[in-house]
Design a protein that fits this description.
The chain is mainly alpha-helical. 54% of the residues lie in helices and 7% in strands. It folds into two domains: 212 residues, 3-Layer(aba) Sandwich (Rossmann fold), CATH 3.40.50; 94 residues, Tyrosyl-Transfer RNA Synthetase (Orthogonal Bundle). The strands form two sheets. The protein has a three-stranded parallel β-sheet with strand order 1-2-3. Strands 4-5 form a two-stranded parallel sheet. Helix 4 packs parallel to helix 15, helix 8 packs across helix 9 and helix 11 packs antiparallel against helix 14. It is globular. The structure holds tryptophan (TRP). The site of tryptophan has 14 residues, from strand 1 and helix 8.
């Protein structure tokens, strides 16, 4: 039987649709995070009611060192601001500072069939099938419920993420729908918002895999990090995988396609225009142009990053203010969920 949670649904919606997204404070962000996510979040802030989270509880599944967690949170906060997220337009906050995330996470875990979690691609790749399962934490399995809590607490309509997160947002929808079916209207059903440009930046060393933070940690040549100085960017791009052709000719291989896509995403050009522009250009010339484009976008972000990172007091104030504003919204949803479960 369903217990109607009361008249506080649907939650009031402002004049702009709400977005929520988050990034783990682990390792450094790379160019793919910027082109696929952060850049869009920043440039579209005026169109949405924005919540941007630093998901430190998620980071516990992979980074046990407390000092690293502490400094990574501040680093990521500084990067958010450096990329143009504006605390006047966006609520910027740390997940663990809003207790409702962990509280709703548990409730959602209790409404998620184990099979749904076991089938997630990320779980399967992290937990393997054999002995690794004995070692990875249970958090790696239940991670999607915590992520669903992040999203649902804010009644988010859209979740702007990279393509790799689509499955997680789909699962969040399934979980929310299941709770709504079983317990009455509790959650607004969110939608993924995945941008075509920059959504898939591939590894420089292996253009068949997506650029990833954890791979970058073991293979530095894999990714351009957001804080890489210009000469490091130059070196990494000069070593990027291409193919045996002497110059850009269609059909291009995966490595050259990736370089062209990076250039197109940065400049805001179409793939076709970019191919046309570089056809016949040597790989050396292409790499030079891609290096220059990357350094042009990263240098101002890095300068702003250094400015923000140097002022921990201001960073902490921004985050405390964000947690307070986030908490008001999150607590209202948590209460609605608790009532629907018979907990209040
Ligand atoms: N799972 C996301 C990632 O690994 C991070 C994340 C956690 C997130 N909670 C979220 C993204 C909520 C969007 C919305 O990138």
């Amino acid at each position: 039987m369903s217990i109607a949670p009361g008249s506080d649904f649907p939650p009031p919606r402002g004049d702009r649709p709400r977005v929520l997204s988050g990034i783990q404070p682990t390792f450094q962000l790379h160019l793919g995070n910027y082109l696929g996510a952060l850049r869009h979040w920043a440039s579209e802030q005026h169109s949405y009611d924005n919540f941007f989270c630093i998901v430190d509880l998620h980071a516990l599944t992979v980074v046990p060192d407390p000092e690293l967690v502490r400094s990574s949170v501040l680093e990521l906060a500084a990067l958010y601001l450096a990329c143009g997220l504006d605390p006047g337009r966006s609520v910027i906050f740390v997940q663990s500072q809003v207790p409702a995330h962990a509280q709703l996470g548990w409730i959602l875990e209790c409404h998620t069939p184990l099979g749904w979690l076991e089938r997630m691609t990320q779980f399967r790749s992290k937990a393997g099938t054999g002995r690794e399962r004995e070692r990875v934490s249970a958090g790696v399995l239940t991670y999607p419920d915590l992520m669903a809590a992040d999203i649902l607490l804010y009644n988010a309509e859209f979740v702007p993420v990279g393509d790799d997160q689509r499955q997680h947002v789909e699962l969040c929808r399934d979980i929310a729908q299941r709770v709504n079916t079983l317990r009455g209207e509790v959650f607004r059903i969110p939608e993924p918002l995945i941008r075509a440009t920059g959504a898939r930046v591939m590894g420089l060393d292996d253009p068949t895999t997506k650029m990833s933070k954890s791979t970058a940690l073991v293979k530095p040549a894999h990714a351009i990090l957001m804080l890489d100085p210009p000469d490091v960017v130059r070196r990494k791009i000069s070593r990027a995988t291409t193919d045996a052709n002497p110059a850009v000719v269609e059909p291009v291989g995966a490595g050259v396609a990736n370089l062209l896509d990076i250039h197109a995403a940065i400049r805001g050009d179409s793939r076709a225009d970019t191919v046309a522009r570089f056809t016949g250009v040597s790989y050396g010339g292409l790499k030079q142009a891609v290096t220059d484009a990357i350094n042009e976008v990263l240098e101002p972000v890095q300068a702003r990053y250094r400015h923000w990172r140097a002022d921990e007091a201001v960073l902490r104030t921004v985050l405390a203010d964000g947690a307070e504003r986030a908490g008001v919204v999150a607590d209202a949803t948590l209460l609605r969920a608790q009532r629907a479960m018979g907990l209040r």
